Amino acid sequence: MKIAVPTYNGEIFQHFGSCPEFTIFKVSDDGFLDVDIISNTGSGHGALLQVLYDNEVNVLLCGGIGGGAQMALAQAGIKKTVVGGRYGL
Q1: What secondary structure letter does DSSP report for 16?
Q2: CB-based contact 75:54 (threshold 8 Å)
Q3: 17: buried, middle or exposed (CB in 10 Å: 19+, 13-18, 0-12)?
Q4: Which residues have CB under 8 Å from 64's CB, separation 6+?
Q5: pLDDT for 19-34, tens place per residue?
Q6: Each residue's pLDDT tens digit, 43-81
Q7: What does each C-alpha distance from 16 to 7, 46, 54 come to in angstroms?
Q8: 3-state class of 17 per DSSP?
Q9: Whole-number Å distance between alpha carbons of 64 and 8
């Protein structure tokens, strides 16, 4: 399973639609396997969704996400978890 978190310079970035990069964690039933940082070259939820899809992400953890992006994630089969609060995650 691959879990993506919006980040910027190694810190959690609050909002999906404008994040400059994703940190992608690869995990299995046996535990943590690997981590990659993927830069976003586009903007808007369509381009960011493509980055997640191309990297075979299964789950997105983020602090803020709009309704259009949520629908696009669902259509792509990517689960989302929105965690609110001052620091997001």
Answers
A1: G
A2: no
A3: middle
A4: 14, 15, 16, 82, 84, 88
A5: 899 999 999 999 888 9
A6: 677 788 888 989 999 999 888 788 888 888 888 888 877
A7: 9, 11, 16
A8: helix
A9: 15
